[in-house]
């Protein structure tokens, strides 16, 4: 018990990155007393078109987004010794007492350097990149893609002014070393490595992509999303819907067993799977939840932390070029017990396997598996010429 209390009250620093193309950065600091400090600095352009700072104290940012919601992706906790704790706390107290005087001149015009000003109190040799987990690094890298595509924002350095490269895959924008490789992957996936806008598509091609997305959406039963989430990431409604599908609607025995098991694991996780307790009169005592359950479902993501709907769009763009049979052939290249029928029909089984593959292997690997059948294309072109 002593170790548990000691661990609970061990001070730590934890970064959070907002999961959108702006990629706002905030942090949480918990001291040895258990007091929580959540801070950030945001940019706002005034009427004179000059930037000034909004000092964010508490769980919500200037847009009202809660740091504990799915909008923010938490990084790994960095535990502090007593000296580091004192330095960080003093830095926060200094900022808090001079809140109205804070300006972007103090922290070099962005929220990243605001975090650096605190991180430097922990270790002057570290930068924000050292505190990010893999998912956060992909989000930070995606900012390079969005800057390239949309020209959004002035914060061209993705992470740290201290760790910039002299060259970059995002049209000259400097990025941190490890993030450069992630950015390159994103730009390659979006056909943006050599140009700053996606390749134009004809109205016919656009319609083809739209139809593929529509078919995927039509056959994607959201109730099966539970199979790819951890029990604490489920809502009770999701667990109930999964049981409804398994018991009354689906004829797939294997799927039904998996859905039933996932629903059971949700309730075991929430209420524990211990034997029910009874009071002195023998009446059952309703178990208490082990944690506060979610009330809103989390949107499903791929292994490489891309929203599933965005991944479907990318797959549709690729499949529109190569054909559904190439998609099925690509999915069959992964080690599944039951291969898909390569019949060029984008039905429920192909859609289900696609979702499973995106969660298990990620968008990048799934995209790479979809290879155009050159022989089939040449044969189709020959028939078209002869006609």
Fold and architecture overview:
The chain is α+β, with helices and mostly antiparallel strands and 387 residues long. Strands 1, 2, 3, 4, 5 and 6 form a six-stranded antiparallel β-sheet that branches. A hairpin with a 5-residue loop joins strand 2 and strand 3. Helix 2 packs antiparallel against helix 3, helix 6 packs across helix 9 and helix 10 packs across helix 12. The radius of gyration is 25 Å and the shape is flat. The termini are far apart.
User: How many beta-strand segments?
Assistant: 6
What class do helices, strands and sheet pairing give?
A: alpha+beta
Helix content: 40-55%
Spell out the helices and strands N to C.
HEEEEEEHHHHHHHHHHHH
**Average of pLDDT:** 76
Radius of gyration: 25 Å
Major sheet description: 6 strands, antiparallel
Percent strand equals 5-15%
Which runs of at least 5 residues are low in confidence (pLDDT < 50)? Answer: 1-7, 46-50, 145-180, 190-199
Inertia-based shape: flat
N-end to C-end Cα span: 81 Å
- H/I helix tally: 13
Gist?
The protein is 45% helix and 9% strand. With 387 residues, the protein is α+β, with helices and mostly antiparallel strands.
List keywords for this structure.
387 residues, six-stranded antiparallel β-sheet, single chain, 6 strands, flat, disordered N terminus, alpha+beta
